[in-house]
Amino acid sequence: MTSILTTALAPPLRVLTWLGSQGTRAVAAVVFIAAAVPPLGALLRPYLTEAILCLLCISFMRVDLAALYAHLRRPALVATATAWTTIGVPLIVGLIAHASGLTARAPGLSLALMLQSMASPMMASPALAALMGLDATLVLITLVTSTALVPFTASLFAGLFLGDMLSVTPMTLGLKLLGILATSLLAATIIRWVFGAEAIQRHKAPIDGLNIVILFIFAAAIIGDVVSDLLAQPLFTLSLAALSFAIYFTLLAVTTLLFRRIGTERALALGLMVSQRNLGLMLAATAGALPPTTWLYFAMTQFPIHLAPYMMMPIARRLTGRANATREIAEGRTRDAPF
Question: Residue 132 carries which DSSP code?
Answer without folding.
Answer: T
